[in-house]
Amino acid sequence: MRLLVFGASGRTGQEVVRQAAARGFQVTAFVRNPDKLRNAPATVSTRLGNVADADAVAASVKGHDAVVSALGVGTPLKHDADVIAGIQHIVRAMEAHGVRRLIYVSFIGVRASRHAVGFILRYVAPIPLRHEISDHEAKENLVRGSELDWTIVRPPKLTMGPRTGTYRTGESIRTSAPVPVLSRADLADFILQELEQPRFVRGAPRLLS
Asked: Which residue ranges form the domains of the chain, and what is each CATH number?
């Protein structure tokens, strides 16, 4: 499978790239700064660009079988219009080039799934994270409104822990943990399994440990 990863230089994106290459995917990493991918497997190709540049996004999407968006915000706790525009560019480019499979990494704290978590993520975190959450909700709406075979993945707070393979996933699972966490390695593992054996096409699964 020819896989294009946006946000490939971030901590989640790097883990997706690493595991995808190990599983035999033909991986292209879309990045602004190639220096952040110096430790990527030798088989990984890079495309330089900014997601706010529609032409650069379209040129990169063409020829791939699937796309993963692990895009983060430019500045934590701030609104990032460029990334919202970037998701729109990705969706339009995929529709134009007939690339149907998209996996978008969101957050379990969005309003649609916030009821499934404990007190802190349900009532406290939405205050400092309000801009990031509203951005995720805007991007989810763009994805949902597309003609693509999308999956919106909603993990909790992410860590740099190891891949365990013991996480839970589903569209109705819940947790009472005050601040649930999941390793980026387990998130990447789920994403790649979903690409290999789709279970949640046009669905929004939650991931919990």
From this structure: 2-208 (3.40.50.720)
